[in-house]
Design goal:
This protein is of the alpha/beta class and about 150 residues long. Helix content is about 35%, strand content about 20%. The protein has 5 helices and 6 strands. Strands 1, 2, 3, 4, 5 and 6 form a 6-stranded parallel sheet that branches.
Length: about 150
């Protein structure tokens, strides 16, 4: 089955909870998944040619949480990565102007670098879903079936 690095950007722990649930679900499906709570570029590079799942919340200004900024900056410098396949779970609050901005920033960067997104990006609205895993778990189950 597939090998998946799960890269987390969290402020209050919800994205980490979603990532840990994803790790469990993917493991039960026979995939090998590992969560990176404070991800760095070296962690990401281990998954070139494999799969990455970015699970990130968004600040009120639509930015990335501090815990994932070093990875994002490193990826900007990395550039072209057509062999990378990825998925994104974005957490946000629709009462803010830049809803799920963190996930959208990651998706735009990876698209620019010719990485291949597997499936659609999941955007979870905290205003509608105070327990984000209720939305993410079924998405992860489906996403896991798309992995080679």
């Amino acid at each position: 089955m597939a090998e998946v690095g799960i890269f987390v950007g969290t402020m209050y722990g919800n994205a980490l909870l979603v990532a840990e649930e994803a790790e469990t679900i993917l493991g039960e499906m026979g995939h090998k998944a590992t969560v990176y709570e404070d991800p760095e570029l070296a962690d990401w590079q281990k998954y070139q040619g494999l799969y990455a799942l970015v699970v990130t919340s968004t600040t009120g200004q639509g930015d990335l949480p501090d815990s994932i900024v070093p990875l994002f900056r490193g990826l900007k410098d990395l550039g072209y990565q057509p062999e990378m396949r990825y998925g994104i779970i974005a957490l946000g609050d629709s009462s803010y102007a830049n809803f799920c901005g963190g996930g959208k920033l990651f998706d735009a960067l990876l698209q620019e670098q010719s990485a291949k997104r597997v499936g659609d990006m999941l955007m979870i609205d905290a205003a509608e879903h105070p327990e984000p895993e209720s939305e993410s778990n079924p998405w992860v189950e489906h996403w896991g079936t798309l992995l080679g």
